[in-house]
Write a structure and sequence with these properties.
8-stranded mixed β-sheet, about 280 residues, binds NADPH dihydro-nicotinamide-adenine-dinucleotide phosphate, alpha/beta
């Protein structure tokens, strides 16, 4: 039987590192800890090793298309594909950050939506039959959906929205922030929230496509919220530890062979949430 492989993006710290830690304990295969910075990634691998856990490092900066394609080629050549992909890498400006909103919008959507989409574009074809894909989104994306205009909400919730239409809407948000027209266009004042609304919607679109194009492969793709977790992003007041935050992403990454659901859902605390 061929070696099974799990890949987690942005896993040198925070929830990503906790996901790798849990996969090292529970996944029957090689677990790849990836990071944009080689030194930070190797340090994280060493810290897990000091806990007696074996992970393997590969550089992966999701904002760098070359880094994505090099990694994708590596996993294809070495293993013939990937069994579990967790798109965890993400960024958020602090509330007090005074960077102009239009810049925050462009930078946040670049990583959380456009670069994560690049990962999916290049890695979905590599996902093996029975594979699991988990996109770490956020409850903030659901809250933001409810703050969008009824017309936008209708599109994000529709079953016929295409990837191109979604990409156009995300770009429209970024463009409108530059002209100060996003509110008039029906968008709320949250770049992080819009990026995660986009990521959850993208997960639903891609799950529908997998069902249509690879109906016999049994791949399950979902978006999730880890909860509010104590990390550099969310601060120390959050109630969940990183290991607790990893529980739902890992549950989705390890849905048992033959499972048919959840698929194309937004999941929090291991429960499918309304979208
Ligand atoms: P952290 O800031 O602690 O960690 C983020 C990780 O993503 C870091 O490893 C960071 O690397 C990495 N990263 C950022 N940009 C890139 C990139 N371009 N390429 C590769 N890696 C990158 O955040 P969390 O652990 O809290 O967040 C993890 C995920 O969970 C995010 O998607 C976040 O939006 C989501 N989330 C978090 C919540 C929380 O309460 N913490 C709540 C809901 C969702 P580096 O160290 O190099 O910066």
């Amino acid at each position: 039987m061929s070696t099974k492989v799990a890949v987690v993006t942005g896993s040198n710290k925070g929830i990503g590192l906790a996901i790798v830690r849990a996969l090292c304990k529970q996944f029957q295969g090689v677990v790849y800890l990836t990071a944009r910075d080689v030194a930070r990634g190797q340090e994280a691998v060493a810290s897990l090793a000091s806990e007696g856990l074996k992970s393997t490092f590969h550089q992966l900066d999701i904002n760098d298309l070359n880094s994505i394609t090099v990694a994708a080629a590596y996993f294809k050549d070495k293993y013939g594909g990937v069994d579990v992909l967790v798109n965890n890498a993400g960024i958020a400006f602090k509330t007090a950050d005074e960077t102009p909103f239009a810049v925050q919008a462009e930078v946040t959507l670049k990583t959380n939506f456009f670069a994560t989409r690049d990962m999916l574009t290049h890695f979905l074809p590599l996902i093996k039959p029975g594979g699991r894909v988990v996109n770490v989104s956020s409850f903030v994306g659901s809250r933001t959906l409810n703050q969008c205009s009824p017309a936008l909400q209708q599109r994000f919730r529709s079953e016929d929205i295409t990837e191109d239409e979604l990409v156009g809407l995300m770009q429209q948000f970024v463009d409108k922030t530059k002209k100060g027209e996003h509110k008039a266009g029906g968008w709320p004042e949250t770049a992080y929230g819009v990026s995660k609304t986009g990521l959850t919607t993208l997960s639903m679109i891609l799950a529908r496509r997998l069902s249509k194009e690879r109906p016999n492969d049994g791949i399950l793709l979902n978006a999730c919220c880890p909860g509010w977790v104590r990390t550099d992003m969310a601060g120390q007041k959050a109630p969940k530890s990183p290991d607790e935050g990893a529980v739902t992403p890992v549950y989705l990454a390890l849905l048992p062979p033959g499972a048919t659901e959840p698929h194309g859902k937004f999941v929090s605390d291991k429960e499918v949430q309304q979208w």
